[in-house]
Amino acid sequence: MKDKKFQQQVASFSLGNLIRGMADPSFAGWGLEAEVVQELAKRSPNKPTGCIVPFEVLQRDLVVGTPTAGGHTVATNLLANRFVDLLRPTSIVANLGATHLTDLVGNIAVPRLTASAAAYWVAENGAPTESQQAFDQVAMTPKTLGAYTDVSRKMLLQSSLDISSFVIADLRASLGQELDRVVLAGSGSGNEPAGILNNSAIATVALGTNGAALTWNNLVDLETAISLNNADGLTMGYVTTKQVRGKLSQVQKVAATGAPFIWENANTPQLPGEGVVNRHRAVASTLMPSNLTKGSGTNLSSMICGNWSDLLIGQWGSGIEIMLDPYVNSTTGAIRIIAMTDVDFAVRHPESFIKIKDIVTT
Q: Directed axis angle between helix 163-185 and helix 15-23, to 10°?
């Protein structure tokens, strides 16, 4: 289904039509949506309880009666083409070069070579000493991300926005934001996976007892440490906070007249505010913690330096499973859409990343 026709169907896929069709199978306007979900159901390794759709949704209640929850989209002279979207962090992990594994089935283990065979210089007619490779595995298991949306009966009937396109765009952006947040800084508690900043296998560089300002020498040392492990690569880059970006944009590499600043502007940025640090991509995001504490230090910022292709992101199945619950809000006529999707991530080589969690920016 990942062909040109499928992409065209996804572009025209209407969540509103899907909801109405699931609620009333006699509805004639959901032929395209029915074709897509039927094909994805055939490809699913497990029989789905609901419909599988090729996008993700997260929790958001949409009702006409509450202006901020949908009512603003129902108006006589609504300028829908001037709709003001929410300001949100830009999704960055995929753009930095993370490796995506899709359509996974069952738990997976990626073989990893941990030691190679040894080579020997031998005399004439001599034989080298036997040596063997050593392996381990990088394991990933599906972690479930659940969501639901309540859509009122009048919202489906009255909205002058293309409400299905709006919901899809908004919730897909929200999903990317949440995935980025957890990959970077997930707590590891409860059902939330541990992100890079809380991965104990990844080295942490401490700047000071109570934190300290980041220097040019610190950054060079980070890259050197990764390079000494032969873990540097073409996707080397930095992710840090907006506060660190602001500070490094004012600090020169060396104390000399006309010396360049540590954070330089990118010639061809692919992300808003993207810069260059020591010839490598550098991205600042509000998803990175800037409120950390250490000793007496407060409001400390974080940074990750790494080879981002060694970050594996796994996605199970062909999309998300979406279920319709017409009963929980049956007295109001609202429909609840419940969505479940399964993802996980892992670092292929911990040596490919280094983190800092005590940067002073004031």
A: 110
Output phi, psi for 158, to 5 deg: -105, -20
Query: Cα separations (Å) of 287 from 10, 79, 283, 310, 345?
Result: 29, 32, 11, 20, 17
Pairing of strands 353-359, 203-204: parallel
Q: Which residues contact 190 (CB under 8 A, 6 or more apart)?
A: none
Decide: 354 and 205 in contact? Cβ < 8 Å.
yes
Other Cβ atoms within 10 Å of 24 Cβ, number: 10
Q: How far is residue 358's CA from residue 362's CA, in Å, rounded to a whole number?
A: 12
pLDDT in tens, 323-357: 677 777 777 777 777 767 788 999 989 999 999 99
Its pTM stands at 0.72
pLDDT tens column, 178-224: 888 999 999 998 888 999 999 999 999 999 999 999 999 999 999 99
Burial 288-319 (b: 16+ CB within 10 A, else e): bbbebebeebeebbbbbbbbbbbbbbbbbbbb
Q: Which of 120, 94, 122 is nearest to 183 (CA)?
A: 94
For residue 185, the surrounding DSSP H or E stretch is helix 163-185
Query: How far is Cα of residue 277 from the mean position of the Cα atoms in its chain?
Result: 22
CA nearest to 358, candidates 185, 202, 217, 206: 206
